[in-house]
Design goal:
It is built from 18 helices and 7 strands. The protein is of the alpha/beta class.
Length: about 425
């Protein structure tokens, strides 16, 4: 088999050590293999780099095992060409697995060009990803804290969450603080409602009539403090992300023209895929990488499963969230697509299909420029007007009506 890389190295990376196998040209057209073991501290990784440089190594491969590959990548990326391999693509034979054998197997695959590298963005882009992912984790923690508050209120016979849509809003927050302070006057607490909530004062009085104990007041106080801390952390992260993405203001603005995508989701999507679509050969490659397209499992001419692959979970979650938001939009192409598919295939599959469509739109907006132009809610009906006409006429005739259909004039069609 043809040798693609003369001097290469395979790394089997673990938490506390790295097994390395260096392959270099030997005498009489042979290949020489040298094995070494290094620690994972910065000093040990620099010694690994010095060893590879001294041997004239040009290419290095390692598996994407959790987050343990990141320290190695940070030290080697500026000096060598690194290949991060998907563990599913480089599995060795069972029964022959050792750390040394894994490193040698990776090096053998790399020297023959048999490993497809994973997409690893530049360092600044990776830092942006960490920020958006951390903000997502904070938002999830905030949702969990709100659920804990609702659980405590239920235990105190308080149904505030049933009347107030948002128990973290100004009105509900004032009532919670009054409960923590020991107030038992439901009329006074209901009068703390502001804006449209004042119309619900009678319902609020009934909802606030509970039996809250001292331990529940303590829990609510700590939970509201945790909520304030999370809000401050989310705001700080959002400010830092906005500062770092200042140069991407135009792509963010164009993505926000798509129904279902706002400022935060646009930041998350761009942090995951970047603005250079040259790294994805086609929209199909991007959809496959994101895990929003059907998988392939065919044997003996039979298609066994179309389950989607895992892909990028952060990007997939953002696209699904955008799809659900777009599904609530009326008089849009994406909303029409969701409702059309949800009837036949269910809400989950319809949301995934809309997420795929949104990603394809994003790909073309970033590659070709321009802004999103909606096709309209009747786009699917226009694809096969005769079929729609026959179906509706048949339904009316089944109800006993006599139906006569006249085709519209050319002028009417133009309008």
């Amino acid at each position: 088999m043809q040798i693609m890389d003369e001097r290469c190295c395979g790394l089997d990376v673990h938490k506390n050590h790295v097994n390395a196998c260096l392959i270099t040209p030997g005498s009489r057209r042979t290949r020489q293999k040298e094995h070494r073991k290094f620690g994972t501290t910065t000093g040990d990784l620099r010694r690994l780099l010095d060893w590879l440089r001294a041997a004239g190594c040009t290419h290095v491969v390692m598996e994407s095992t959790g987050s343990y590959w990141k320290p190695v990548y940070n030290i080697l990326e500026e000096s060598l060409e690194l290949v991060l391999a998907n563990p599913q693509h480089v599995k060795g034979l069972p029964g022959r697995k050792t750390d040394v054998a894994d490193a040698e197997w990776l090096a053998d695959l790399l020297q023959h060009g048999l490993i497809r590298p994973s997409f690893i963005p530049p360092k600044a882009h990776r830092e942006l990803r960490e920020l958006t992912r951390y903000r997502k984790s904070l938002i999830q923690q905030r949702s969990s804290e709100i659920n804990r508050i609702q659980k405590v209120l239920e235990g105190a016979n308080s149904k505030l969450a049933s009347v107030a849509t948002d128990i973290t809003g100004m009105s509900a927050r004032g009532m919670l603080e009054a409960l923590i302070a020991g107030s038992q006057d439901v009329t006074a607490m209901a009068d703390l409602a502001q804006g449209r909530m004042r119309r619900k004062r009678e319902a609020l009085q009934q909802a606030l009539d509970g039996a809250i104990g001292d331990h529940q007041r303590f829990l609510l106080q700590r939970q509201l403090a945790a909520l304030d801390s999370l809000d401050a952390a989310i705001l700080a992260c959002s400010t830092e992300i906005e500062t770092r993405m200042r140069d991407w203001a135009d792509p963010i603005e164009r993505l926000c023209t798509i129904p279902g995508i706002g400022q935060r989701l646009a930041e998350v999507i761009l942090a995951e895929i970047g603005i250079d679509m040259g790294q994805f050969p086609s929209q199909q490659h991007l959809a496959s990488w994101a895990g929003v397209c059907p998988g392939n499992h065919e044997s003996a001419g039979k298609r066994k499963s179309g389950k989607t692959r895992k892909g990028s979970k952060w990007l997939r979650e953002a696209l699904i969230e955008a799809a659900h938001a777009a599904a609530r939009a009326r008089n849009t192409y994406l909303g029409s697509q969701y409702r059309r598919l949800a009837v036949r295939r269910g809400a989950a599959r319809a949301a995934l299909a809309v997420a795929h469509t949104i990603l394809v739109i994003i790909y073309h907006l970033l590659r070709d420029g321009g802004t999103y132009t909606d096709l309209g809610p009747s786009y699917f009906d226009q694809l096969d007007r005769d079929r729609i006409r026959r179906r509706l006429v048949t339904r009316l005739e089944a109800l006993g009506y006599e139906v006569s259909v006249t085709a519209p004039s050319s002028a009417a069609m133009a309008r």
